[in-house]
Specification:
Order of helices and strands: EHEEEEEHEEEHEEEH
Largest sheet: 5 strands, mixed
Structural class: alpha+beta
Distance between the termini: 73 Å
Amino acid sequence: MSVPKDVAYFQDLDKYKQNILLENDLVEYEPTIKKHDELLITVSAPTLDQNKVAQFNLPMTSYFTPGTETNTKVQQSLSVQTFTVDHDGTINYPVIGRITLAGLKKSQAINHIKKLVSDYIDDPIITLKIISFQVTVLGEVQRPGTIPFNKEKISILDAIGAANDLTIYGDRKNVLLIRENNDGSLEYIRFDLTKSDLFNSLYYYLQQNDKIIVEPNRTRQLDSKYGVADGYKFSIYSMVFSAVSIAASTAIAIISLRKN
């Protein structure tokens, strides 16, 4: 059985004689740090004086399990503190103070922090992870909503898959991506999921807080249009029928009274 041409993904894929080489992968993909990101940053070093290292790491905090009694033995959980990128693109880092990170690639941010920490520690090792990576998928998908990810390399297909795929009514030729940049500007990019060109798009890999909107196809639009119109007509017909029924009942009652 053939698949409708508006439903199948990447219909022109068969024309490629070999695997597609993603142009984006010629240079390793890196996320860009944005305002309001939550960053987990840790410092380590081979120095014997670990107190110098500890001052650059936020402490672990513990909290009581919700719903437990304070006068009984309670279970505690550990929470890793994170750095929040402020609205001005900076974080407040121990010892050093304000550091501007927004707009930097992950490796650039690591090198920047390493250079600053090197003034206090020899050969520091910096690890950085964006833990606030999430994407919102709305419209004609099976499970719309905001989806958190525990990794930093997310493609548009990953996001759609996490939303349990498009419904049969999703317009695969007109999927909208909305991206907010650090300068406050918005980008609007449209994808055609039936074409293999998607793989070489500069927007194939998503950034944190991207929004994907799957618009309804023509069938869904027509169903919605006629559904509302038919519902309105049904309401009018019901009102008229009810009025006629009441009038008829009243007339029968009057005739019966006159006969009596």
